[in-house]
Amino acid sequence: MTELIPKPRGVVATTGEVRLAAHSRLHARTGTQGVGHWLSTALRQATGLPLREGRELDDAGDGIVLQLDPGLGPEEYRLVSDWNGVLIEGGSAAGVFWGAQTLRQLLGPDAYRRAPIRRDRAWAVPYLTIEDAPRFRWRGLMLDVARHFMPKEGVLRSLDLMAAHKLNVFHFHLTDDQGWRIQIERHPRLTETGSWRARTKTGHGASPLWDEKPHGGYYTQDDIREIVAYAAERHITVVPEIDVPGHSQAAIAAYPELGNTDVIDTNALSVWDTWGINPNVLAPTDNTLRFYEGVFEEVLELFPSEFVHVGGDECPKDQWRRSATAQARIRELGLADEDELQSWFIGHFDSWLSARGRRLIGWDEILQGGLADGAAVSSWRGYAGGIAAARAGHDVVMCPEQQVYLDHRQDPGPDEPVPIGWVRTLEDVYRFEPVPPELTPEEARHVLGTQANVWTEVMEDHARVDYQTFPRLAAFAEVAWSALPAPAERDFADFERRMTAHYRRLDALGIAYRPPAGPLPWQRRPGVPGRPKDGPPPSR
Ligand code: ACM
Predict the structure, then answer these.
(1) What are the helix and strand counts (H, E) for the chain?
(2) Which residues are CB-contacts of 430 (< 8 A; sequence separation ≥ 6)?
(3) Which of 165, 173, 187, 247 is catalytic?
(4) 515 CB neighbour count, 10 Å cutoff
(5) Tens-level pLDDT at each residue, the chain (540 residues)
(6) Exposed e or buried b for every residue in 399-435, given b needs 16+ CB within 10 A?
(7) How far apart are alpha carbons 320 and 329 in whole angstroms?
(8) How, if at all, do strands 138-144 and 63-68 pair?
């Protein structure tokens, strides 16, 4: 049962086990009561054990004690299982929480169920000591809820799955050309008009097909408050993304004056029903700035995160080149070109956010035309943007599309249901290294961490998201958390061995993961067909 994912720093096992039973107590000492509540709820529902509140260490005998140890780093924890019971100590409540996640793995896959399946079974934790701490402080997952709306229930489930993998930043991609998903009270049409589209492009390749079905939905501000609070209970920070000045057709469809009205008839635009890079970008006017300041004011009230993501990716400059208004703005500001105009636009929100005690983060295109002082970068077009930003003293989250875009296919075979992008296998993700060797140790300190991105153009619901995300998110979590050696030296066979146990956990959680080729490890017996062997790549 010590087949843990992500792999901890150190495990020393001895002989014996703590048995949780009806008399076992759970005692959460000062500063850990929130974790105690989470853990007792999770374990009570899975085990059916009462896990009554103990008061003192002795009182918890054969039970669980949670406490802070200020000598440990903020997310560091120590888990000791011995004749006294289970003791989890953390440098902060977050550290204790990650220790609680490890405890759940140690209890076996059924500890992930929501109701007990057998009342007579034993719940045992082997005697051991685990010392553990994360490699990175930003261990992220980005979910695109704009291309396909994911109802709130699925978002909460994603947060649970992140917690189970010790991931701690949920990057919430809330707006795009194809949908606006967050209620903004002062601009109601953003969701009234901007959250629905009439139809959606489906299929791949040369013959586009539209499904002719309306698609949409949004989160009310109360939904957002619930999501943020639910994440906080799991020591996950939600970083909202409002994508500007590109990826904004849904907003322009709702408020046509936000677009480049001297170039196109923005009244004729509707929420986009297809994919790709959209030419209809925001007009760089005072009206647009004031409008989005209003949006961000409401966003800041809802999201307490240090970082706020402003997108900045894939903003074609063609309309700005043709717009007399945009050109006048370039002259008035003494800028060299349209790239500098985008830089000015992003810089405006950098100062605006800094004045309110927050920090801006954007996709690596925000480097074009000069990066605002305090801004951080999500490096997605490979490592180059992240390297340039770190060298210039900016913080970076490494999420190169060639490695950790989980919408990309997992196999070249013809039965792969989402045949897009580069092939990124489980092993490819396991061998992803967030810190490029080009960086000096000083520069590498700017790599806050890493993030896997789940874009949902071809994922219409959570089952599809599961398939694309798992099992690769488990490999990603180990890259983000564990102190792994250089990619070529990583022991993928050991990871696969531990995955055998982890698939059982994912089964108990009800995740529609992509099965490995061939029979699953516990199906290797006659008469049980597995997934067909991966075949040759399809012709395009
Ligand atoms: C991106 O993939 N456009 C950030």
Answers:
(1) 17, 21
(2) 475, 478, 479, 490, 492, 495
(3) 247
(4) 14
(5) 579 999 999 999 999 999 999 999 999 999 999 999 999 999 999 999 999 987 765 655 679 999 999 999 999 999 999 999 999 999 999 999 999 999 999 999 999 999 999 888 899 999 999 999 999 999 999 999 999 999 999 999 999 999 999 999 999 999 999 999 999 999 999 999 999 999 999 866 556 788 999 999 999 999 999 999 999 999 999 999 999 999 999 999 999 999 999 999 999 999 999 999 999 999 999 999 999 999 999 999 999 999 999 999 999 999 999 999 999 999 999 999 999 999 999 999 999 999 999 999 999 999 987 787 789 999 999 999 999 999 999 999 999 999 999 999 998 877 777 767 889 999 999 999 999 999 999 999 999 999 999 999 989 999 999 999 999 999 999 999 999 999 999 999 999 999 999 999 999 999 999 988 655 544 444 444 444 444 433 332
(6) bbbebbbbbbbbbebeebebbebeebebebbbbbbbb
(7) 10
(8) unpaired
CATH of 138-523, one of 3.40.50.1360, 2.60.120.10, 3.20.20.80, 1.10.10.10: 3.20.20.80
Range(s) of the chain covered by CATH 3.20.20.80: 138-523
Please work out, in degrees rounded to the nearest 5, the angle formed at the alpha carbon of residue 202 by the alpha carbons of 199 and 203.
160
**Residue with CA closest to ligand 1 atom 1:** 313
Report the length, in residues, of the chain. Answer: 540
CA of 277 to the centre of ligand 1 (A): 10
Number of Cβ within a 10 Å radius of residue 263: 19
Q: Is 138 in the pocket of ligand 1 (CB under 6 A)?
A: no
Catalytic residue selected from 76, 132, 144, 176: 176
Q: Record the tokens describing residue 309, joined without a space.
A: 């993501």
Active site residue 75: no
Is the minimum distance from the CB of 3 to ligand 1 under 6 angstroms?
Answer: no
CATH match of 10-132 with 3.20.20.70: no
Model pTM score = 0.95
Joined tokens for residue 190: 């953003």
- CA dihedral of 19, 20, 21, 27, whole degrees rounded to 10: 140
Residues forming a β-bridge with 45? none
The finding on whether 363 has its CB within 6 A of some atom of ligand 1 is yes
Asked if residues 487 and 431 have their Cβ atoms less than 8 Å apart, the reply is yes
- Determine if ligand 1 sits within 6 Å of the CB of residue 380: yes
497 touches 3 (CB < 8 A) = yes
User: H or E element: which one contains 51?
Assistant: none
Strand partners, 518: 531
Q: Are 171 and 141 in contact (CB under 8 A)?
A: yes
Domain with CATH 3.30.379.10 in the chain: 10-132
Instruction: Name the residue among 318, 322, 340 with its Cα closest to residue 330.
Output: 340
Q: Please tell me the residue having the least CA distance from ligand 1 atom 3.
A: 313
